[in-house]
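QUALITY CONTROL LOG
STEP: pairwise intake check
CHECKER ROLE: data steward
CRITERIA: each record must contain a sequence immediately followed by its structure tokens, with no blank fields

ENTRY 1 OF 2
RESULT FIELD BELOW
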Amino acid sequence: MHRNTLLRGLLAGVATAAMATAGLMPLAAQAQQAIKIAVLQELSGAGATAGTNAKNGIELAVKEINAAGGILGKKIETMVTDTQSNPGVAKGLATKAVDDEVFAVLGPTFSGSVLVSMAETRRARIPNFTGGEAATITQQGNPYIFRTSFTQTTAMPKLARYIARGLKAKTVAVIYVNNDFGKGGRDAFVKAADANGLKVVADISSESGQVDFAAPVLKAKQSDADVLFVYTNEEESARALRELRKQGWTKPIIGETTLVGQKVIDLAGEAANGVSAHVGLTVDAPSPVIQGFKARFEKEYRYVSDHNGMKGYTSVFMLKAAIEKVGKLDREAVAKALHGLTIAVASQPGVLMDVTIDENGDLDRESYLVEVKGGKQVVKETLPALGKKS
């Protein structure tokens, strides 16, 4: 009897598997299947601040979406791994994600890592979201890569215009980090500076993870530039700001998003006050939707999110919007639907700001000019999106 019961159980299992393969599984059973998403982030190494924030933002979004019933009735399942801020490790993890047949990949955040790993997701035709800002990421014709941040070629012209017109500066010194992220930003900024009549009088390279900024700051001071533009990773940004105050720098300091992240502000302390930056996302934006995200994130993780947390959070909702538009779990169709897609907060609050994704995978939305005051970002000006699609 026991053998017969066992045999019937085995046959039933085979039949169930066959039905699932043939698409004949009952709807209730199909709804239990999860949408697998690989989260490839920098949880250690030089990118730990950025990657951890992005990971936390992703997991908060997944928690909220799953609590509301998932996507098309299916829950999201995340597979989180640490790239160690190493492009080689990132590539290996992307290969594993492909082997695991995930529906989408979120990350890495470091430009150098995603430039290597996205070849694997492209080969497998898997939608891949990144917070990386290097312009080259979306200049290679990869139809499966999508940004959650502005590209450097979008952000730097706004910055250079503000320095030249808003600050009335004639000369600028540049301190940048010598990696794909830093070099790409430096190149885009120098080009934009020239277009706005700004002369770069000091072009200073620093290394990822650099601890001592005495020499770069001294070079910037000796250049007698009207303004200093700093474009480094979060931890290095805090060190640079402390050294600038130590050496008595009193002229305007301006940068992009990484210069005024909450982690930088916390680490730099008083040295961060007065620093300005152009940011694509900020939890201090005067928006009820963004303020709601800020409160939920802080309640969940007991600290204030930076822009990376926002990028991680919005990436899940961008994916959700595309899946719901397609109406089925088809990776290629979802990637195609993302191109040219406009997502409104009114219909998808999780994107936090109305956003349009162009044919390259770059995005367009409002952005902000902020200044650090009293240990937090204060929005000075809201800059409009470059263009809107109906």
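ENTRY 2 OF 2
RESULT FIELD BELOW
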Amino acid sequence: MTAQIIDGKVSAAQLRSRVAGHVAWLKKDHGITPGLAVVLVGADPASEVYVRNKGRQTIEAGMRSLEYKLPTETSQADLLTLIERLNADPEIHGILVQLPLPKHLNADLVINAIDPAKDVDGFHVTNVGLLGTGQNAMVPCTPLGCLMMLRGHLGDLSGLEAVVVGRSNIVGKPMAQLLLGDNCTVTIAHSRTRDLASICRRADILVAAVGRPEMIPGDWVKPGATVIDVGINRIAQDGKQHLVGDVDFSSAAEIAGTITPVPGGVGPMTIASLLANTVTACCRAHGLQAPEGLAV
């Protein structure tokens, strides 16, 4: 292995420390405690673990954490009523509805019912539009974490050629917008892109977010490139379940200059970025300058 490893756990710990510092400042100088409300509908085991981790890290950062666990059969009207109540609560600065929702609920309708200023997931159409036009937006947590890691390891990204493999609304598209905002030359590719290998080989920054296990081999990576692997895929190997990314780590690490592992790379930054977004939303709600190093 020749690539430098970007340790997401270390990056996330550093970001959480900055968040805690800003929270302490808000409490001491302004008497404000940022509040995050997380809504979970149903009993999906993975979502329950994720929500529990969010709550623990929110409290550890000194913020208020509120969890609303609703039964699977919760109606659309009842869920929207809860969101309306949270929108109106001045002590709640961030609202997150855990996805996926049960099939009888319209996720787009639910997301777009959240006050855009409290949409700490950055999924509301208003925030999508603000991000796309270079204005102050709430930015999706995973792309925000990726950008922070890239800035931390590369510094100025201006002029670099970036390829984002994946076009989801949650990662691929906002990641491309963030890289454009940092003056990269950006290509969005996907599983149906013709000659995807040659496009990936052009990239100084290669972001893999396509959702296919180990789809990108090492010989698709430009020598010395920075590889950010967003994928989290479970595969069976030797009778056991293993987590792997969208990049074949072992071969890519021989070619890349810098690479994120799976697990332990992008994943830890997602919750840390959620905490950062909550502090940013709190500051904006109170007319305070968004904290440096937490927002785009």
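INTAKE CHECK: passed for both entries
DESCRIPTIVE NOTE, ENTRY 2: The longest helix spans residues 8-30.
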